[in-house]
Each structure stands twice: as C-alpha cells, then as structure tokens.
Amino acid sequence: MEEVLQEMGLSKNESIIYLKLSELGISSAYRIAKESKIFKANTYDALHKLEEKGLVSKKNIEKKVMYEALDPSVLLNIIDSKKEKLSKIIPRIRLVQQFVKSESVVNIYKGTSALRNLFYHFLEFNEPFLTYGIPKKAFEVVKYWIDNFHKERIKKGIKMYHIYNFEAHERVKILDKLKLTSVRCLPQLYDSQVATNVCGNEVVLIIFNPTVKIIQIKDKDMADAYKRYFKILWGQAKNV
C-alpha cells in the first residue's frame, strides 16, 4: 500500500505516517513518530503536509494536539485535481513540440556515397519523388548505382517525376521506358547545374560543379512550396 500511495504523490514519510495513523486512530505526534520510527521533526513536517492535502485532521483534545487520518477517497480528489491541471498544460506542451518539429534542419554532404544514401532515404517516405534541373553530367555521377535504385523504387511502387535539362534529352529517352517513371525536358533557357529533389518533408539540392555537393533541408513548409513550384515547371516542360 505504501508504494501505491507514493505513486499517488505522497512522500515516503507521508505514506508511512498516513497508514500508521489509520491503524492507530486519533493519536499524538509523539506516538505517531514512535510507532512509525520516524524522527519527530520529520513526523511533524509530514503531518503538516498531509493536513494540507486533506488526508489528516488536527484536533485539540484535553489541551493536547491530536491527529486523525481522514477518508482515503480524498486521494481521488487529488488525482482529479492533478488531471485538471495537466489537461490545461497539455495543449501548450503540444505547441512547443510542434514548433520544434517545424524548425528547419539543414545538412551539408559531399560525394556520391552521400547522394546515394539520400536517394534511398527518400524511398522511406513512400510517396512520389520529384526532381528537376538535372544536368547531363548527373548520369556520370550516379551511373554505378542508379539502375539498382530505380529497380528498388519500382518494386516499392513509388513513382518518380524527372525534369531534365535540355542538354540531357538522350537520358530522357532511356528513363521514359521505365515503369512508374515520367520524364520531361525544359527549354535550354532553364538549364542548371543544380538539381532539386523533393520528397516527403525534405528538399535536397545537388550541385554537380565541380564536385558533388549536397544540401539537405528538412522543412515541411519549404518542401510543400517546392512541390507547388514543380507542378508549374511540369506544365512548362515537354516530352521528348
């Protein structure tokens, strides 16, 4: 019983003294301390706190201060009070958590291995993979693993939309034969050496010149904005 009372918010001394007082009936602090084997000063402190919680009452009997344990159902009121207080702060805690989750996280990587890892990471979102501004030289960077990536993507049933630079129209013809793959080209005016990839709540920018540099941005609002922009570009891009 002592452990349960402590779980309900009573201290160890409060639990011991409340249970002992329940056994003894109306008693003096001296007797309670003696029977509980707790120092008298600590006993007074615990009795005072139990009185504040409504679990103990203090009486004057024959000019002596006596204590009596009250109905333990008061503990239910204490629990209800705590639940009410907790219910008031839960929305505030959730707001803090949402704010933390919404904060942008930016990571910078270099090299083809990091690029490969990010592509496979995108498959975990299990939603369409959007990529645009892909230069011709991109294939030389990814050629050793990109075919296996597409096999895994198609196996998972994930669609991928590519918008290549005009210079890479030959690569477009090859990709266009793959399942769950849509490919278009933009006019040469839009050619870029920075490819933009969007999936889930992430945006990944890949700089191919002179070496592979990658900027990963985790931000839902930004990802949603890039997805909307992709739709505009997709409408302007053409099939080859």
- Work out the helicity level: 40-55%
- Alpha-beta content class: alpha+beta
**SSE string, helices as H and strands as E:** HHEHHEEHEHEHHEHEEEEH
Give the C-alpha Rg: 34 Å
Q: End-to-end distance, in Å?
A: 78 Å
Low-confidence stretches: none
Largest sheet: 7 strands, mixed
| Mean pLDDT reading | 88
Cα shape: rod-shaped
Number of helices: 10
Q: In CATH terms, what is the architecture of the largest domain?
A: 2-Layer Sandwich
CATH third-level topology of the largest domain: Endonuclease, Chain A
Strand order of the largest sheet: 4-10-9-8-5-6-7
State which percent range the strand residues make up: 15-25%
Structure characterization notes:
- The protein has 240 residues and is α+β, with helices and mostly antiparallel strands.
- It has two domains: 71 residues, Arc Repressor Mutant, subunit A, CATH 1.10.10; 132 residues, Endonuclease, Chain A.
- It contains ten helices and ten strands.
- The strands form two sheets. The protein has a seven-stranded mixed sheet, sandwiched between helices.
- A hairpin with a 2-residue loop joins strand 8 and strand 9.
- Helix 2 packs across helix 3 and helix 2 crosses helix 4.
- The protein starts with a helix and ends with a helix.
- 22% of the residues are buried.
- The mean pLDDT is 88.
